[in-house]
Specification:
This protein is α/β, with parallel strands linked by helices and about 300 residues long. It has eleven helices and ten strands.
Length: about 300
């Protein structure tokens, strides 16, 4: 079978905080190869990128994310005085609405499906119509961080809680290719592979002549060194000194998301799957947009190479 006969893509974008910026690079890689994205589904950070793309504003969104630094992150953090969250989340939505004005999901030029979770009933809630930003705000509501969204008698939180990679929910067209970008992959890669990843990211940045790339690459290498030190330290871990309520809850959440992602893939296997390990970048590494976008481009390019070589 010639895999190049049909290049229409149903694209699924997973949850994973700042790692979701990799979706931008993944979309660019697809379009550079001549693939046509005919529908998109997403949850959490994937819902933001999916919404921006389906509205035809991905380039503007990319420029905005590349401009975000730690100071801008603090400016967008509207702290909540309620007992159920740290941040209201209104400023983030307002910033996105400067790129894409409020609109209806069903009016977008590319069919879009967004996913949230109902905290009260534990149901998955799927948005295919209605307010774009109401759906995005619900889908990104990380429990305890963002305020939950009250919607039609439901209390909605992050879609990634129940379904971090919404493969079953996407609108399909006859003969399309199911492509997924998983940004919460298992983190059991070898040290050697991780070092190779750093070199490939550095090469991608240099080829694109991204400003300040040398400093960004150095930060990544420093981060890698820290990760590798942690791996060595874990061999002789002291439970009393390193494991506490916060680290345990964080790791348990990671494990849940990884397992749910794997189940979604097993139930609905994509034709093309690009996967970024969870440890590659932290949830709030939005000031590393250059690196994350470049990594998303590389991972999707590699996945397409394998698909096209079949």
């Amino acid at each position: 079978m010639d895999n190049m006969e049909n290049k229409n893509v149903a694209l699924v974008l997973g949850s994973g905080g700042a790692r979701g910026l990799a979706h931008i690079g993944a979309i660019e890689a697809l379009e550079e190869r001549g693939y046509r994205i005919t529908s998109v589904s997403g949850c959490s950070m994937g819902s933001i990128i999916a919404g921006m793309f389906c509205a035809g504003k991905l380039r503007e969104a990319k420029e905005w994310f590349l401009s975000v630094d730690r100071q801008r992150i603090l400016q967008l953090t509207d702290f909540s005085i309620t007992g159920n969250s740290l941040v209201k989340g209104r400023k983030v939505i307002q910033a996105l609405q400067e790129i894409v004005p409020e609109c209806k999901i069903e009016s977008l030029p590319v069919p879009l499906t967004l996913v949230a979770s109902d905290l009260l009933t534990t149901d998955e809630v799927v948005f295919r119509e209605g307010s774009l930003f109401e759906a995005i705000r619900a889908s990104i509501s990380i429990p305890l961080f963002f305020q939950p969204v009250q919607w039609q008698g439901r209390l909605l939180v992050d879609g990634g809680i129940l379904n971090p990679l919404p493969l079953r929910q996407i609108e399909r067209h006859e003969g399309d290719i199911l492509v997924a970008m998983d940004i919460s992959g298992k983190d059991g890669l070898t040290i050697e592979r991780r070092q190779s990843d750093v070199l490939k990211i550095a090469q991608a940045l240099q080829e694109k002549h991204i400003p300040y790339a040398p400093k960004a690459i150095q930060r990544l290498q420093d981060n890698l060194s820290h990760k590798l030190t942690a791996i060595e330290r874990a061999k002789n871990i002291n439970l009393q000194g390193t494991v506490n309520y916060v680290t345990m809850l964080d790791r348990m959440s990671d494990m849940q998301i990884q397992r749910n992602t794997q189940l979604a893939i097993e139930l609905t296997p994509p034709d093309v799957l690009a996967s970024m390990p969870q440890y590659a970048f932290n949830t709030f590494d939005f000031d590393k947009a250059e690196l994350i976008i470049a990594e998303g481009h590389r991972l999707m390019s590699e996945a397409l190479d394998k698909y096209e070589a079949r």
